[in-house]
Every structure is written in C-alpha cells, then in structure tokens.
Protein: MYB binding protein 1a
Amino acid sequence: MGSRELAEPLSPGEATQSGARPADRHGLLKHSREFLDFFWDIAKPEQETRLAATEKLLEYLRGRPKGSEMKYALKRLITGLGVARETARPCYSLALAQLLQSFEDLPLCSILQQIQEKYDLCEVKKTMLRPALFANLFGVLALFQSGRLVKDREALMKSVKLLQALAQYQNHLQEQPGKALLDVLSEVSVATLQEILPEVLKADLNAILSSPEQLELFLLAQQKVPSKLKKLVGSVNLFSDENVPRLVNVLKMAAASVKKDRKLPAIALDLLRLALKEDKFPRFWKEVVEQGLLKMQFWPASYLCFRLLGAALPLLTKEQLQLVLRGDVIRHYGEHVCTAKLPKQFKFAPEMENYVGTFLEGCQDDPERQLAVLVAFSSVTNQGLPVAPTFWRVVRFLSPPALRGYVAWLQDMFLQPDLDSLVDFSTNNQKKAQDASLYVPERAVFRLRKWIIFRLVSIVDSLHLEMEEALTAQVARFCLFHAFFVTKKPTSQIPETKQPFSFPLESQAREAASSAFFSLLQTLSTQLKQATDQTRGGQPWTYHLVQFADLLLNHSHNVTTVTPFSAQQRQAWDRMLQTLKELEAHSSEARAAAFQHLLLLVGIHHLKVPGPGREGPRRAMTRALDPQEPPWVEVLVEILLALLAQPSHLMRQVARSVFGHICSQLTPRALQLILDVLNPETSEDEDHVVVTDDSDERRLKGAEDKSEDGEDNRSSESEEESEGEESEEEERDGDVDQGFREQLMTVLQAGKALGGEDSEDEEELGDEAMMALDQSLASLFAEQKLRVQARRDEKNKLQKEKALRRDFQIRVLDLVEVLVTKQPENALVLELLEPLLSIIRRSLRSSSSKQEQDFLHKTARIFTHHLCRARRYCHDLGERAEALHAQVERLVQQAGRQPDSATALYHFNASLYLLRVLKGSTAEGCVRETREKQKAGTDPSPVPTGPQGPTLSLLKGGQAASCLDLNLVTRVYSSALSSFLTKRNSPLTVPMFLSLFSRHPVLCKRLLPVLVQHVTGPVRPRHQACLLLQKALSLREVRSCFEDPEWKQLMGQVLAKVTENLRVLGEAQTKAEHQQALSSLELLNALFRTCKQEKLTLDLTVLLGVLQGQQQSLQQGAHSTGSSRLHDLYWQAMKTLGVQRPKLEKKGAKEVPSATQSPISKKRKKKGFLPETKKRKKRKSEDGTLAEDGTPAATGGSQPPSMGRKKRNRTKAKVPAQANGTPATKSPAPGTPTLSPSTAAKSPKLQKKSQKPSQVNGAPRPPVEPAGQKQPQKALPEKGVVGKSPVSAPARRKARLSLVSRSPSLLQSGAKKKKAQLRKAGKP
Structure:
C-alpha cells in the first residue's frame, strides 16, 4: 500500500475529477508515510478503524497546526467528499467535521468556498454530477456537525442557499437536502430563524402542503417563531376540511419515502403532537388516519398508521386510548397479523410488541393505562380468537396491580364471555367461504376460552418467580377447578363455585383446560430448586393443589367431578392422602421427599384418569418401608418404569423429575433394572412391564394432551401400514402355499373343470355342475382368506408389540439421560458404556423404520454428547481400576472387529473416555497394590515420578495422581495401530488415532516408534503411517512431551526413513505406489516446516543427493495421470533445499527461432510492439562478450517469443533458474556434517534476500555443479551474499558451458537451445 499511496496519494475519485499535477505529486513525498496512511484508514468500512484514524490525524495536526500538513489534510478531506465510493463519503465528512471542531481558527466560509470551487455544479461534467452533488451535501453536513455553523451567520446563509439549490436535484438526492435544512434550522437561535424564515419558507399554503419537508418546516416555525410565521403566512388551520386531504397526501408521500427504512416519519409524529396541543386529536385520528390513510389500501400508509398507533400510546390519556384501541386501525392491524403468515411476508407484530413493551415499561406508576392497553390488544379477535400470542413477553413490564387486574379480566371473560366488547373481524378468505358455522357464537366462545386458559398458564410460566404467591395459587386453583370439577350448588367455602357461566362450558374447553393445567403443573413441580417450586410454608405447590382437590371431593353436595369416582377409586385417593401424612414424619429423608413428590403428581393425575392401578406408588411405599423388601430406590425405579409404560407426556415428565431427585441414591441393582429394559437381548422376552397399547391410548386421548412419543408411535405405525399396502400383492402371493394349491386342484378335478390331454372332445359342464363348482371354490377361497387374514393379524400384532416396546425403551432412555447429566461423577455411569454400545450396534444394523432411527439417534446423542464429551467424570474409582483396564482392552478389540467405521468409532470413543477417567482418577487401591509389588519385588517396573511414567504416577506425599497403566494401554493401542496399518479393510480410521494422540500425547509418544517402523514397510502401511506421522508431528500436545534432544533425534529418524522411501521416487507403476510417493513427499515437506519453525539443524546432504538423483526418472513420468501433484510436492521440497524449479519449454516451441527471425510471434503479436524492420540492430555476441552497459548481451533466441515489458521487468527481478535444476550455491564440504537453514536449506525468502545484493552489484553467479557428479563442496557464507569472483565473465561462462555439457541435464536438446538457456541463466 505504501508504493500505491506514494504514487497515488489522492482517492480514486480525486484523480479523475481534478487531476494530479506533477508538483503536487512531488510535494507529497515531503509528508511521512504515517500521515498519508490516516486518509486511507478514514475511508475503511470498520467504524473502530475510522474513528482511530480520525483521532490520530487530529493528534498529528495539533503538533503542526501551521504546516503544510493542514493544507493537505483539508484538501484531501474535501476531495474525499466526492469520491466514487459511496460508503467513504460519510467517513470523510465526519473526519472533516471533527477537524473543524478541533481547529476553530479555520474559517468556515473559506472551507465552504473550497468545496464549491472543487465541485462547481455549473461546470461539472454530466458523468460527475452525482458525486459533486453529494460532495456539496456532505460538505454542508460536515460544517453543521462541527457545531460552528449556527454561530457563523455568513456561513449559515451560504449553506442554506446551497441546500436550497441542492433540493432541486430530486433524482439524485431525494429529500436529503430538505432534511439537512430542517436539522440546521432546528439548531439556530430564534432571532436567526426569524431572519432566515422568509427565504426558506414560501408564503403560499399550497406550497407548504405540497411536500413533507415544507410542512415540517412550517411546523418548526410554528413551534419556535409563531408570531413571525403568522405575519408571513397568516392564521392557518391545518385540520380544516379543506386541508385534511392535503395532509393525507403529504403523509402518504412521507410513508413512501421511509418504505425501505421501516420507521415512522417525523412529520407524522409532529402532526400528532400538534393535534393534541390544539385539542383536535379525535378529528385528526378519525379523518386523517382512519378515513384518509387507512382507506388508501397502500401498505406503506397502513404501516405508518400502525407505527403512529404505537408511538402515540405514551402521549394519550385513558379516554383517548379507548378511542384509538377500538377503531379501524387496530382492526386492520389484527387482519395483518392473521394474513402475514408466509416466511417472506413482512410482519409488523414484533415492532408493535416493542411499542407496547416500551409503553408498559414507561408508565409503571399508572396501572390503569397499562391495563387498558393490554386488555385492548387482547380484545382484537378473529372470530373469537385473539391475535395476540398466548405467550406475550410484554406482561413482564406490568405492575402488580395491573397484573392482578389483567388476570381478573381473563377469568371473567372465560366465565362470561362478552363478545360485544371484542374488536372482532374476519379475513377476506373467511368472508368468501360463506360458511354459516364459522359465525356461530359458541365457536367464538370456545376459541376465546381456549386462548384465555393458555394465556393464564403462560403468565405463570413466565412470571412465576416474580408473581405474588396468592395470584399464582388463584390461577392454579382456577385451572384445576374448571378442568376436572363441576359446580352443583355454590358455597362460600369454595369461591370458584360462585362464578356462573353465561355460556355452558363444553367438553372441548374442559380438555383444553386440562391440558393447560398439566402444563402449569409441570412448570410448578418439575423445578428442582427449593425457591421456585415451593411456597412460603415450605410445602410444594403440588401439595396445596392436592389439598384443594381433596376439599372439592369432600364437598360432594356442592361440587362433583367431571369423571365420577367409584367407591374403590375414592378409597385409593384416601389411602394416598394417608400415605402422604405418614411421609410427613420422615420429611427430612431423601426417600420420603422422592415418594412424596411422586405421590402428589400421580395423585393429581388420578383426577384425570381414575383407575385402580393408580395406587401403585402407595403399595410401593409400603414395600419400601418394609425391611424385608428390596431397597427403596429399587422399588421407586420399578414404579417409574411402570409409569413410563403409559403413553402420557405428563407421566414422562413426572418420571424425569422424580428420578432427578433420587439418581444420587441409585444402587447397582436399581441401575440394572433400567438396563434390563434397554438390553436388546433380554427386552424381547421381558413381560414384567405391561406396555399400554393403542386402545388405552385412544381411551386416554379425550382427557390428556398429546404425547410427543405417542405422535411418533402413530406416525411409525402409519408408515408401516402404508408399507404394508404397497407390499400387499407380494404378501398375497406368498400366502398361497402348496396345500392350498393341492386343495384347489382337488376341487377342480372333482368338478371336472380340469381335463386331460384328450378332454377336447368332452362336453362342457352343465349349469348345476357349474353352480356346485362355484360354491366349492367360494368356500375354499373363504377359508384361505380367513387363514391369510389371521396370519396378517398375527404379523400386525407382533409389529405393534415391537413398536410399543421400542417406544417404551425410548422413554426409559430419559432416565439414562438424567443420570449422565446430573450425576456424571457417579461411578455407576461407567456401567452404561457397553449397554449403550450394544444398542447402537444393533440399531445401526436394523434401523429401517423412523422409530428405530429415533431410538438410535437418542442413544447416540446421550452416549456422545452427555457421556463421552462430558466435562465432569468419575474421579474415585475405588477397586474398579483393573476392571476398567480390561474394559479398555475389550473395547479397542471390539472396535477393530466391527464391520464398519461408524460402529467402530463409538467403541473407540468409549475407550478414550475410559482412558480419561483412568488418567484423572485417584485410587488408593491401585497405589497400595503397586507399592506392595515393589516391596515384594514382583513388579520389575519402578513407579516413576514424572508424567510419562509407564505405570501409576505418584505425587509428592504419596497421593495417587493417576491409576492409568501406560504399559498395558500402550500394548493395547499398539496392537490396534499395527492392525490398522496392516489390515486391508480395517474399520479403524486415521481421525480415531489423531483423537487419541491429541488427548493423550504421552501415549502418542510411545506409539510413534510403531509409525516410524511402518514408514518403510509395504505400500499400504507406508501410506497410512506417513499420513499419521504428518498429522501427529504437527500437534502441540505431542511436541510438549519431548525434550529437545529427543525431538531432534525423532526428526532425524523420520527423515532417514523418508529418504529411504524417496530412493524409488518416480518408479511408481500402480496407484497405491503413486499414493505412497505422494504421502512420503507430504511428510517430507511437513518435516521441513517443523524444522523451520523450531530452527532445528539436520543433515540434508544425503536427502539432497537422493532427490537430485531421482529427478530424471521423475521427469520421464511427467505426463502420467496424477503426476502434477507429485511434481509440485517434489519441487516444494527442492525449493526448501535451495533448488529452484526450472522453467520448461512450451509444447509449441519445438526449436529456438534463429537470429534473423523476429522474437515476437505473429499470432501472439501485441499492440504497441515495433516491427522487426524498425528495431535497432544489435551486435550479437556468441562468445559471451559484454554489451555497452556491462551486462552480457542476450541473443535473439534467448528471449521469449511474447513477453511484455511488465513481464520482462518481473523476470529481471527474479532469481534466474538453473538449467539443470541444481542449487545455485555450492554444497558444503565433507567436513561440514549439517546444513543449517542459513545455507542451502534456507527458506525462499532468505534466498531472495541473499541474492539481491549480487544482482544489484552485478556480480556473476558461481558455476553450477553437475547433478550427477560428487565433487568437494564448500560451505556458503553466513549471510548468503555471493561475492565477486576474480575470474572474468567470459571465462566463467565457458566454464559453466563445459560443466553443463557433461551433466545429465534435462535441457540438453540442441546446441542452440543449450546456448540460449546458458545465456539466460548467466544474465545477472
């Protein structure tokens, strides 16, 4: 960027508009590079960069206020106002404003004059008119933003005139000059405005009402200088009958101008304030807004009305709010909310929610206005259904009195719906339908009640932490009562019975209330924190609801249940209450709290689906208190499994909640009960859990919310039915067995319907015989149909049972998810690995249906995300360390035996998880066992103290730091790695071992010798080993495990192996061998990068000789498939070693053109080149004589046929490539054992730097050694600068010629070609 700014210091638009004079260009060289960079940074799109550059520019100029930098800065900023980049103009304008604000001695009139002279609108060309207009506009804005324009009267007047002139160019600037003029006049003093007003405001009222800018200027003058305005225009009534249509047109133009910005025009809000000030708001709203803008059927005008409604809320009184919120605007808003459903349609609802939220937040001290607004928006309905969402976030801004009033209004509307108070509407599609059933009051009442009940629940759901306890209890009692009870006779003891219904509560509304209540119960009961799910008395919300339900059941004369209780069901309810009282004596125990929580939830669910089986938790509690029974946790787990067998979403949530309480007390036997359900081998034959079938589900459908898993179950069944219909023909063919065929043949032969070979002459059957035959066939086919249907029913029954069992297992996985999420440190989590792996292994093989895929996905998600990737894990293994080591070995072996990589990945990840557990766990048993072996002398391997020890590492003080046996796991993973490298179709993959290396680098250090050993092995292991080594050596974790000498030794070993592989480079015959060569070169380049980063010094002499020796064989296979990548890698390595890639001749150039021929081809002749007859003849020196300038003269044949000036310049700047591909520098002598990066193995950047001085000084290059000969080599100088040789240039050229003629170069294809390449290579 530096060269570009020195040569082109102005912006792109400046050079084209004004032209850069040579004097200015030379004058820029006086300024510093830092100063010029400021102006480029000012125009960048990043705001932080622009602001920082502006601040630095001001600081720079403060130190030189009188220098030439100030003049240049002003000129540069003024030029930037009119650049072609539209995003850069505001940046330069802001920087100019900051400059004028900081240096107040700069006259504004002078700056404005410079802007007008620079961008004179009268003299500017038509193509540059738009940038000039914006330059003038942004110049005035810069003067205004500096804060000095309103103080300078002369500059102010000139700016006003300029803005008026710019207002004529509507096509380019639109309304921007008018808005700028309004901004300027709004800041001036009253006296100045009185003086300027006659010049900017026309005295004609028609002109004032012709544009939004003129009208807004009128309103500004009416606000600040009303007396002057009255003298100028006279008395004006904007809301008169004559002016109202004009106001509507002005507002329509304003709405169209902000269509893309999606904001409220300022003129609309100013008119609203004026109407409120003059007490003409009803006239303005009715005639201008509702009768004017809203009737235009123009969506921008409608959105303006909506925005005006939202912005007017804080400005209106309660009576004015009633006028606005019950009119046509809010009805039209409701229609928009109902019809704007498509994804690409603009939706105004979020913007209106912001308006309402801002209003509610701003008037916390006026609950009446809050309640009025919220009730009004809840009353906008579409055939009874409110358009406001049930979960509306604005309720969080309600004050407590307003919230109480809103809840009371919702309950009153539920009991006695007042349809006349609603702002109801129907969409156009509903009007076209002309369906009389849509306009029945009962339908509207049902839609309204359903919305209200869910609205009440959502209020508690979003505000139950902030709501008053009494209000929460009121909503919960209301939902419970109207969901399950009916009033027979009002009583004062139950306030809910005193609330009569104006419309009877239909069954569908009760079902909605029931679903809403259980959603509320889930909110109040599934929270695990004490402060959220319990009342001030210390009892949970479910306890109070059960007590309220018992109160209702005891008042049987006043209240009855929707589903009557039988005597047996009532006894079960009473026994449940008795059990709760018994649990209160043991309330401090964990098992008592868990059973209480379970009993309360199941007891409330008893109201919905009463039945004798609901007292299972009570019997379980009796078993739990009996010392002869199994532990209470196991009993509770059995209950939870029984609850999960029901297709109820509530029971599923109950089981998750209760299990979350008891999972810390889980025992191995209780966990085994869960795993027995999930075990694919044993769950097929298990019958101890009764799974509810579809009949139960249909029975529960009318009283319970839809279950997520029920929907999945039904969808899977429908898929199976559709598949069954598709394969019905095949099944029909399969059902026809051999026995049926024999029976059919017998019937046909008995009826003489089948004849033999001689049956042609026989008579046909009579009518009676045919009838008898038909009856026999009919009975036979009827029996066959019954048998087929029986078999089909049996098959469907088995499929249905399988689907129910799988659905049950999906629900049981919830318990596993809760355990691994909330108790990841529990040692029982380790018992889940192999059962989950067996589920995954089985599902991957038979995951055909959607249900099976859901089961697999959920299991895999729990295993991968919640278990293997968990941040917390078990740290206290106790006596499990030895078993875990055996499990690691077993998992790795299983991973190697899997049929595919997907299944093997899960097993391998499980082994990595166990490695992490073993590495981070402390086991006193392991420490004690290891110490006993050391004392007895049975353990030959001592326990080291470092982190890389082969066995258990110990910290100071004898505490165990890890119980990971590195010897064992190294042997396990070494065997797996060897199997992966040697086995052809191994399920193990490279990413698996890379994950192992990155997570356990100490183990990687022990496995690297295995990889190094296979680098020179057979073809396939060699490729995989090279790839793994390349990735492993670049890991920081692996590098941190090696000391510097060890790392250098490892690099040397790998380099030796790679060098041995490269001896056969270019001899690949098969695809595998070609891939092996590629991997070897990739590994070599990776080694070079690592050595360069860590500045390692290695002996590369042998490697260089090997690579140079394989150059010819590599070149012979240059045209084979895939050889381009091989050549690129080869020359990348050679470039690192200091050898540049030769430039190959083009295919079309078979021979070098002679001296008499033109070096420029006729086909590729470019415009601007001189013909051959016009060129000045030069003496051609074949013997290497120098030209007049002292450089070796080039022959015509050495020049490329079509090379432009720029390409020739770049070619001169580059380092000439060697003809034979050997390094330009001498190789080190035999006494020098290594090649450091500062010699031949240095990076390309260092080589370029080292060669530049020789090129500048005109020093010739040293002679090139032939690639095929080994001659004594000398070390290069440290800096790499080639010094001058005392040998003359012709002698050196002859010596180089003799060397090249003896070398096995690839470019020996003719004397002329050889001489041309030599001259080209010898050119300095």
